[in-house]
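Lecture notes, continued. The same structure-token format from the folding unit now serves as the input rather than the output. Read the line below as a description of shape only.
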């Protein structure tokens, strides 16, 4: 069941990434991230209000710290990723960024996880398959900028996934909310500094809302699966999102 949820997170991520990549070609990638994160924050805030329980006491302290790290790293990763998608080939950028799954795998092992031999074989096949999906594209002339950005996105995504997993072990919903609150706050400050909304238009909002809700749904599925299982396995299954993006 947990593996299925992690796989579903990859589908949700891949689908939202596809449409976000298209949107990043007509507006600033940072604006795409900022607005989509804002929609996700609104949705999560409504859920918390409807729940009528306030923030879980377990979220204070370490839980909030992990949420903050996840928000900052996730936002940086998405900006790099969407910028790469806007300037490069999706068949190259998405698979490279999926290699960020190796970060939580390593950190999971360092924190005491012990996947079975069968799990190791499955993870190796999944990561290799996702990475090789860019093989045909890399055989041609690929400019270095999107490749570098995709590699940076992979690193940030890996940190974000591990932090999301750690925070979800304290309080899942609150971690998702704190993650979005952090990223939106950072983009709000950046927007005030540059005095720009990145070319966002009213007609863009419905699509951006769907992207944001898809992304936070993927985060939620991953966080639930990883926090109740192994982050190493969940991160690899979640890294199959390039397959959904390419299809």
């Amino acid at each position: 069941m947990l593996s299925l949820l992690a796989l579903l997170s990859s589908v949700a991520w891949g689908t939202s990434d596809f449409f976000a990549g298209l949107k990043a070609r007509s507006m600033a990638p940072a604006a795409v991230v900022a607005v989509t994160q804002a929609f996700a924050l609104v949705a999560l805030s409504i859920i918390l209000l409807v729940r009528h329980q306030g923030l879980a006491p377990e979220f204070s302290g370490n839980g909030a710290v992990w949420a903050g790290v996840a928000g900052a790293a996730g936002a940086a990763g998405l900006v790099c990723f969407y910028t790469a998608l806007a300037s490069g080939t999706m068949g190259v950028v998405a698979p490279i960024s999926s290699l960020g799954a190796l970060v939580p795998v390593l950190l999971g092992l360092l924190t005491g996880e012990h996947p079975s031999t069968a799990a190791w074989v499955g993870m190796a096949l999944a990561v290799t398959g996702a990475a090789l999906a860019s093989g045909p594209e890399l055989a041609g002339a690929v400019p270095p900028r999107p490749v570098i950005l995709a590699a940076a996105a992979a690193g940030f995504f890996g940190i974000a996934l591990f932090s999301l997993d750690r925070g979800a072990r304290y309080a899942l919903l609150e971690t998702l909310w704190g993650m979005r609150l952090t990223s939106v706050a950072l983009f709000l400050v950046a927007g005030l500094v540059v005095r720009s909304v990145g070319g966002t238009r009213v007609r863009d909002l419905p699509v951006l809302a769907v992207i944001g809700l898809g992304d936070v749904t993927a985060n939620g599925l991953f966080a639930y699966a990883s926090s109740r299982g192994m982050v190493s396995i969940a991160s690899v299954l979640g890294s199959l999102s390039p397959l959904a993006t390419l299809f």
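Point for the exam: The chain has a mean pLDDT of 85.
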